[in-house]
Amino acid sequence: MKNGVMMQYFEWYLSHQPHLWKVLKEDAKHLKNIGISAVWMPPAFKGIGGKQDVGYGVYDVYDLGEFDAKGTICTKYGTKDEYLEAIQTLHDEGIDVYCDIVLNHKMGADANEVIKAHEVSQTNKNQIIGDEETIEVATIFNFPSRHDKYSDFHWNYKHFSGIDYDIITKSGKTFLFQDKEWNKEVDDENGNFDYLMGADVDFSVLEVVEEMKKWGNWYYDITKLDGVRLDAVKHISASFYKDWLKNLRNYSRRDLFAVGEYWHGELNHLLNYLNEVDYQLSLFDVPLHYHFHEISHANGNYDMSKIFEGTLVKASPHHAVTFVDNHDTQPSQGLQSWVEDWFKPLAYALILLRQEGYPCVFYGDYYGIEYSHIESKRTLLDQLLYLRNHYAIGSQDDYLDDYNIIGWVRNKEEQPLICIMSDSEGGTKKMFVGKKYEGMIFEDVYCHKSDVMIDSDGFGLFECSSGNLSIYMVKGEFQWN
Length: 481
What we know:
By secondary structure, this protein is α/β, with parallel strands linked by helices. It has helices at residues 20-34, 80-92, 206-223, 238-252, 267-276, 286-296, 312-315, 344-352, 363-366, 378-390, and strands spanning 6-8, 38-41, 46-47, 58-60, 96-101, 105-106, 111-120, 128-140, 160-163, 175-177, 199-201, 227-230, 257-260, 282-284, 320-323, 358-362, 396-399, 405-410, 417-422, 427-432, 441-444, 452-453, 459-464, 469-474. Helix 3 crosses helix 4 (238-252).
């Protein structure tokens, strides 16, 4: 796609009123107008928390706000009909829909079972602690309110590997079920990072895998989705999603987009996963996010020339979804690593105005986060999105050669766009735009610094102020209201 941009259309602390699906439906035309080409919608299925569940405490993936379960018919975001109406409206506007898929675990069981299990170490899940125990676990999922509509598959302990709570002793330990082992091809943190939360789905069970494939096909038929955001892929066998995506693409007869959430700050873990899945999906560029976070707290003591070192967007740009923040990194969340406000313009320029990567704009940045008193950056993002869609096109020459001041030039053969930024003291950088621009004046359309005249060799001495961003274009070319 030409300069595609996705928006993550939710943040953690949204109220369940008004229903987000209704809000999104009304917002679809605006999103199209500002240059959003795809929307990542939050998990649409019923969670253990009912209408307060953000969507990751998965109970029933077939309940999209249709059945009276967990104290509610609607999910946090609305009813099934509202969900499908929002998708249809987005499609009518030419916007792709990416659905959030959460298959790693289940929570909120309908009944319990008494089984045998072993406690495992919290720091090394491969290490069994003590003797076999008899525990009571919440592992029966028969979805009584759904009455087997869409699927008659019922879950029990045989379909899971482990759990983190024994009802008998009220013990919050991690237990591996009798005759089970953790799934392979997962991240190696804590020895084996198969277990994340709830009743951990065992992807080595054939009937589980087949049910997941059937559900994926059903979900496509219901939504006509254009892509998927896959949650917690580091906790799921790589071979599962490799096979699941192949099945879904064959079924839909479409090359559906897919991006996985593999939360790791080290590039080699991301590249290893991409290799394991034969590069059948993209990943969020977590290392780049952590660079942004570090810079925003470094008081100018960060080497900006290394901004892309060790990032996915540099190593494999066609498989990198770049982002500044998301629902997990926002304040008060477990992975909190919020990028400070002063650096947000620079960070978004680094993902929106460059050639590499597929950028994702966060709802919490665009609309603000009331819970954390974070203000909207809508004006900034509207301008950068406009620049991306109309001017950040074509070739790119990088000037990532200074500790504090970096820049790049886009599309110097037609309508040049020059970006320069500093995380510390301001200054200038000499950059080439083309000899045909000799004597022409370039203006700063973002920060309104002094105009720049291009010399006889096609170079300009471009300026930015301390801790800020400047964007230069031919004077009079860019009109922004």
